[in-house]
Amino acid sequence: MDSIEELFRNSDISKKMGEILRSYKGKQVTLMEVCGTHTMAIHKYGIKNLLPSSVKLVSGPGCPICVTPGSFVRTAITLSRDEDVIITTFGDMIRVPCDGESLLDEKSKGSDIRIVYSPLESIKIAQQEKNKRVVFLSIGFETTTPVCALTVLKADELRLKNFSMLTANKTIPDVMEILSADENLGIDGFIYPGHVSAITGNSLYRKIAQNCRIPGVVAGFEPMDILHAIITLIRMINKNEADVINEYSRIVKEDGNQIARNIVNEVFEESDSVWRGLGNIPNSGMKLRQKYTKYDAHEIFDVKDVDIDEPAGCLCGDVLKGIKIPPDCLLFGRTCTPGSPVGACMVSSEGTCSAYYKYGQ
Ligand code: SF4
Predict the structure, then answer these.
(1) Is the minimum distance from the CB of 94 to ligand 1 under 6 angstroms?
(2) Is residue 234 lining ligand 1, measured as CB closer than 6 Å?
(3) For the range 4-8, what are the long-range contacts, defined as Cβ-Cβ under 8 Å and sequence gap of 24 or more?
(4) How many C-beta atoms lie closer than 10 Å to residue 203's C-beta?
(5) Atom of ligand 1 nearest to the CA of 353
(6) Most CB atoms closer than 10 Å: which of 82, 230, 306, 312?
(7) Count of CB atoms within 10 A of residue 89's CB?
(8) How far apart are CA 163 and CA 133, in angstroms?
(9) In this structure, what are the phi and psi dihedrals at residue 53, rounded to the nearest 5 degrees?
(10) Which atom of ligand 1 is nearest to the CA of 345?
(11) Ligand 1 pocket, 353 CB below 6 A?
(12) What is the pTM of this model?
């Protein structure tokens, strides 16, 4: 019997879906995939090659590394220079450039910077390194924030005094509302992120659909998930239906994961947040609640994130809004490559520039 992955990668069905799409004769539509994992899948599986010229796919701000601003990276670099500090971080963050420097550079100069696959690993490190202060770089969307919250609760349970988090966690709905309302972007439909929706549920996208008259489909990450989402969106757009359909029901439930949301609500509260290329967006971030500020590295080390200009020529901001595509950037594939990234969108394995570089259009 075929596995779920094999079923959703069935080439015969994919071809049929491609035929349906190529026979589309309706109006020109622009669809945005919000999630970086969708962006990678779209390029990896050559989904754009199956689309007629009247269907355009653009990428959105759904790569957590890409939207974390240079100001945060600068603060992390500053903290990493403190001999008493061990920085723990997800892998891609270490390579994000900031004013010609990166955490990787600091590591090569001797700073203690360790890559972790879960923030909970930072707790073990803090227990082992009692004379050091461990700072976890807490970034990510609704999918990642629950485990960040769990980590704080664990630190609290163990009464750890040498653990803290530098937070830049973000939430998706408010940025989507901003993009939806921007007529210059001309988005006709959204492919909503499957992983985030597994936590949030899909009901919160209905407000966007109804207020901005833009339909959306919550989709998984296999080729057929994405093709099916595109077909559904085109149908809804042409019928002028502004609704949200969940086509990832094998993972996403209408109300999401209440247990995960409760853990997040215990530890975090809504805050404004600065996004790379999009600036400060009210209520689009998560900060530690008063009760847990003893784990807030910004407070403990008395550091503030200070605005940083994007590298000269880098169009990451416009790429994250779907206004430009990576080949529009003069640095793409020339001075900016995955081996020598100039901007964050070329660093992350979910970054749009990285996807274009690796798989082409
Ligand atoms: Fe920025 Fe590089 Fe992408 Fe250009 S190609 S937008 S410099 S990340």
Answers:
(1) no
(2) no
(3) 4/250, 5/222, 8/220, 8/222, 8/223, 8/224, 8/225
(4) 13
(5) 3
(6) 230
(7) 23
(8) 6
(9) -65, -20
(10) 8
(11) yes
(12) 0.92
